[in-house]
Amino acid sequence: MRQSDDAVGVLAGFTVAVTAERRRDEMAALLHRRGARVVTASAITIVPLSDDEALHAATVACIGLAPDLVIVTTGFGFRGWLEAAEGWGLGDDLRKALGDARLIARGPKPCGAIRAAGLSEEWAARTEASEEVLSRLLELGVSGRRIVVQEHGEPQAEFVAALRSAGAAVVEVPVYRWTLPPDVTPVRRLVDSVLAGQVDAVTFTSAPAVRAFLQIAGDSADGVLERFRSSTMAACVGPVTASPLLDHGVPVVSPERFRLGALIKTITDELPRRAVRMRVAGSLLEVRGHAALIDGELHTLAPASMAILGALAARPGAVVSKEQLAASLPRGNDGHAVDVAVARLRTALGSGKHIETVIKRGYRLRVDEAAA
Q: How far apart are the C-alpha atoms of 50 and 155, rounded to whole Å?
């Protein structure tokens, strides 16, 4: 497939996976708009709030506690909590309990949800980090205080333990819970694609999604982690999401602002930087995940052709033997399979001038000089 230079998106030729459930379609649309090939495989699913007995019990406990402080961690969760309480006939009682308490917000989105509910926050964390909230509370002193902590997808064990150690009585509110999706087949397919080197970036928007992804990967988890360390970019919306990967020694890219739009921009900026660029036979060749750009013109390649081009580009200008090229093919094979793949690659690139046959030795790229 060929496109004119002005029609090629900045992420054209790259494959990006989306593991989120909430806002999955929005993320996919933003990436598509930039030219990426997008794979969606939700690693977790949200338990409906109205069906969640744990939230109902925590709501009743919160109302009975008459809290001094309420920690609001996410706008999405806070709104859902109020909606669920309304459905149970507890809306007025919950709003009164919240209105009588001092509300602490973990960033601007919780602030927006608090104000939309007709309430007001006393203080908001500028860094949007739980650590800043905890430092603030411990500095003010919480001994003897009744505190409600709205969770954000999973228990905040260390945060709650620190408050209790400081003498607070704490009620945890699981405003939404994550479980594995009913059908994990799409995630397993994504795992296989990552292992095969066919995915350039995997996005994560929550720590539970990272853990679920590795759990579903099962015996292949170590291989997936190695791919993340070596070639596939792990893109996380923020440090909390990234923590399970960082614990495994995986380098992670994250935006400075923990927002979906900022995550997409980070991917848009970072992936093209990882492309291999060089001058070949008088043209600028750029090697991407599943495509090549020649002087800005996109050429989408089949996996075997992409494997051959990647192996040649890894040793620019050097002769690569048929044995070495055969080892790079998705299913391996012999010298004849290499000849066929090279012929198809030349056709896909629109010219045979970029790849030189070196008789009885192999093939090489006709490199002019390293591109800037």
A: 19
Between CA 71 and CA 86 the distance in angstroms is 20
pLDDT digits (tens, 9 = 90+) for 97-154: 999 999 999 988 899 999 999 999 999 998 878 889 999 999 999 999 999 999 876 6
Name the domain boundary from 176, 203, 219.
176
pLDDT in tens, 48-89: 666 678 889 999 999 999 999 999 998 888 998 999 899 999
Q: Are residues 111 and 157 in the same domain?
A: yes
In sequence order, what are the residues at sequence separation of 6 or more whose Cβ sits closer than 8 angstroms to the Cβ of residue 238? 128, 254, 255, 258
Q: Determine if the pTM surpasses 0.85.
A: no
Residue 28: domain span:
5-46+181-273
What is the total count of domains within the chain?
Answer: 3
CA 16 to chain centre: 9
Maximum Cα–Cα distance for the chain, whole Å? Answer: 84
